[in-house]
C-alpha cells in the first residue's frame, strides 16, 4: 500500500491508524508499569538483593534512552511502518526470551534487549501519526495517542497483580506475545507504507559516546551503596562517565544532524525548565517504584492488592492533567508548577512519616497527592520547554527529551533503590526483640528513603521561581 500520492482526508481511515499506533505504544508503556509491581516477585524467585533486581528496570529504561535517537534514522531508511513493525516483532521475541531466564543476569540481559526494541516504538509511532493526520486535524486525533499514558499506569499494575496471583511470573511476559501479534496484524491492515527517505549519515560517534558515558555514571552510582568514592573502580567510572558525556556534548554541538539537539541548552530558560522536568521525573518514577515495593515487602500486600492501590494515583494524575492545562493556558507555568510541585511534596512528606500504624486509606491519600501534583506539572513543563527552546532546533527537541527522560528514570531507580538498600541494612542491624519491631524498623527505612525525593522536590519548586514567560527569552 503506497500512499505517496495525495489522497483526500478520511476520518474513517485515520482513526484506525491512530488507534493501531496507540496500541503498539501501550504495549511498551504497560511493560514498564508491570515491572514496578513484579520486582519483589522476581527478587524472591532469583534469590537476589534489591540492588541487583532493580537492574531489570534500569537496564530496560536505559536501553530505551540509548536507542531512541536511532528512531528517525531507521524511519528514513526502512520507512516508518517497517521500523514500527520491526520494533514490535523484536519486542515480542525478547518478551518470550525473558520467560526463558534461569538467572537474574539472563533476565537483565533480555530486559535490556526488550528496551532496545521498545525505544523505537514511541518516537516512530509519533512520526507515523504526523504522516497520516493533516495539520488541521491533529489537535483532536492526537489526543488518542495520549491514551497509553492514561491506560498503562492503571492496567499495567492490575494486570501484573492478577497474573502473579493466578499464574507464575512468566505470565507477565507471555501476555506481550498475543498483544504483539495483534498489533502486527493491525499495522499490516491499517498503516500505509511510504517510500524510504535516505538523507544524512548517522552520527555513530555520538551514538557511542552518549550511552557509554551515561551507563558509566549509572553504574558508578549503583556501586556507591557498597563502595565509597575512595574505591578506585567507582571513582574511575564517575570520571570516565563525566569525560564521555562531555565529549558527547561537544560532538553534538558540531554535528549538522546531531542525535540530541544539545544546542537548546544555550537557552537559559530551556535549561532551567528541563532541569525542573528531570527533578520531578526522578521523584515520580522513584515513588512509583518505591510504593509498590513498600506495600509488598513491608505491609505484606499481595501483588494484586498493590496494583489496586496504584490506581488512585493514575486517576489523580489524569485529573491533574486537566486542571494543569487550564491553569497553564490562563496564567502560565508558575501558576501550575508551583502548586503542582507543592501538592507532590505534601504527598511525599507524608510518606516520610510512614509507621506500622499507617492505614491503607492514609496511604491512598498520599498516593493521590503525588499523582495529582505530577499530572498538574509534567505535561505543562514539557509544553513550556518546547515553547522556550531555540526555534532552529525545536523540531529535534522531542527525541532528546524522550532520551533524557529515560536516562533520568534509570537514575531514579539506581539512586533510590541504593538509598533504600542502605536504609534497610541499617534497620536490620538494629536490635529488635520481636518480628513486629523488626517490621517497624523496615517501615521506618522506607520513610527515611522518601526524604531524598522530598529534598529533590524542594529544589525543583525553588527552580520554578526562575522560570519566565516564553516572550521573555534570554
TrEMBL record:
Entry's localization field: Cell membrane
Residue stretches making up the Major facilitator superfamily (MFS) profile domain: 17-472
Regions that span the bilayer: 14-39, 51-71, 83-100, 112-133, 139-164, 171-192, 204-221, 233-250, 270-295, 307-325, 331-351, 363-383, 442-464
Keyword Transport appears in the UniProt entry: yes
SUPFAM superfamilies: MFS general substrate transporter
Matching InterPro entries: EmrB-like, MFS, MFS_dom, MFS_trans_sf, Sugar_transporter_CS
Matches recorded under CDD domains: MFS_LmrB_MDR_like
Keyword Transmembrane carried by entry: yes
Membrane topology note: Multi-pass membrane protein
Keyword annotations from UniProtKB, A to Z: Cell membrane, Membrane, Transmembrane, Transmembrane helix, Transport
Family the UniProt entry places it in: Belongs to the major facilitator superfamily. EmrB family.
Protein name, as recorded: MDR family MFS transporter
Organism for this UniProt entry: Lacticaseibacillus pabuli
Amino acid at each position: 500500500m503506497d500512499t505517496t500520492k495525495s489522497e483526500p482526508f478520511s476520518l474513517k481511515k485515520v482513526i484506525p491508524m491512530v488507534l493501531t499506533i496507540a496500541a503498539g505504544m501501550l504495549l511498551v508503556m504497560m511493560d514498564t508499569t508491570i515491572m514496578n509491581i513484579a520486582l519483589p516477585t522476581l527478587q524472591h524467585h532469583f534469590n537476589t538483593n534489591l540492588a541487583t533486581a532493580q537492574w531489570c528496570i534500569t537496564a530496560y529504561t536505559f536501553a530505551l534512552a540509548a536507542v531512541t535517537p536511532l528512531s528517525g534514522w531507521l524511519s528514513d531508511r526502512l520507512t516508518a511502518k517497517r521500523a514500527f513493525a520491526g520494533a514490535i516483532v523484536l519486542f515480542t521475541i525478547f518478551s518470550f526470551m525473558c520467560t526463558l531466564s534461569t538467572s537474574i543476569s539472563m533476565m537483565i540481559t533480555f530486559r535490556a534487549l526488550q528496551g532496545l526494541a521498545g525505544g523505537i516504538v514511541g518516537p516512530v509511532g509519533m512520526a507515523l501519526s504526523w504522516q497520516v493526520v493533516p495539520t488541521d486535524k491533529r489537535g483532536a486525533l492526537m489526543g488518542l495517542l495520549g491514551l497509553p499514558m492514561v491506560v498503562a499506569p492503571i492496567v499495567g499494575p492490575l494486570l501484573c497483580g492478577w497474573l502473579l496471583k493466578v499464574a507464575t511470573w512468566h505470565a507477565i511476559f507471555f501476555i506481550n506475545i498475543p498483544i504483539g501479534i495483534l498489533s502486527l496484524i493491525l499495522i499490516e491492515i491499517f498503516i500505509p507504507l511510504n517510500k524510504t527517505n535516505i538523507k544524512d549519515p548517522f552520527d555513530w560517534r555520538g551514538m557511542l559516546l552518549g550511552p557509554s558515558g551515561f551507563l558509566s555514571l549509572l553504574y558508578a552510582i549503583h556501586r556507591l551503596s557498597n563502595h565509597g568514592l575512595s574505591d578506585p573502580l567507582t571513582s574511575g567510572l564517575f570520571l570516565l562517565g563525566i569525560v564521555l558525556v562531555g565529549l558527547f556534548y561537544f560532538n553534538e554541538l558540531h554535528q549538522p544532524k546531531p542525535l540530541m539537539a544539545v544546542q537548546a541548552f544555550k537557552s537559559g530558560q530551556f535549561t532551567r525548565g528541563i532541569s525542573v522536568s528531570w527533578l520531578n521525573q526522578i521523584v515520580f518514577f522513584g515513588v512509583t517504584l518505591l510504593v509498590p515495593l513498600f506495600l509488598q515487602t513491608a505491609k505484606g500486600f499481595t501483588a494484586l492488592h498493590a496494583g489496586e492501590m496504584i490506581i488512585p494515583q493514575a486517576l489523580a494524575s489524569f485529573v491533574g492533567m486537566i486542571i494543569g492545562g487550564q491553569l497553564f493556558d490562563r496564567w502560565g507555568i508558575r501558576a501550575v508548577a508551583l502548586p503542582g510541585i507543592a501538592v507532590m511534596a505534601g504527598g511525599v512528606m507524608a510518606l516520610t512519616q510512614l509507621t506500622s500504624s499507617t492505614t491503607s486509606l492514609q496511604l491512598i491519600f498520599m498516593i493521590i497527592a503525588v499523582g495529582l501534583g505530577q499530572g498538574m506539572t509534567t505535561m505543562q513543563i514539557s509544553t513550556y520547554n518546547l515553547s522556550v527552546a531555540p526555534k532552529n532546533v525545536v523540531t529535534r527537541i522531542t527525541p532528546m527529551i524522550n532520551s533524557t527522560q529515560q536516562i533520568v528514570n534509570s537514575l531514579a531507580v539506581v539512586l533510590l533503590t541504593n538509598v533504600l538498600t542502605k536504609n534497610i541494612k541499617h534497620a536490620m542491624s538494629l536490635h529488635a526483640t520481636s518480628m513486629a519491631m523488626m517490621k517497624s524498623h523496615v517501615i521506618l527505612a522506607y520513610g527515611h528513603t522518601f526524604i531524598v525525593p522530598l529534598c529533590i522536590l524542594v529544589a525543583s519548586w525553588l527552580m520554578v521561581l526562575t522560570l519566565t514567560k516564553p516572550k521573555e527569552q534570554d
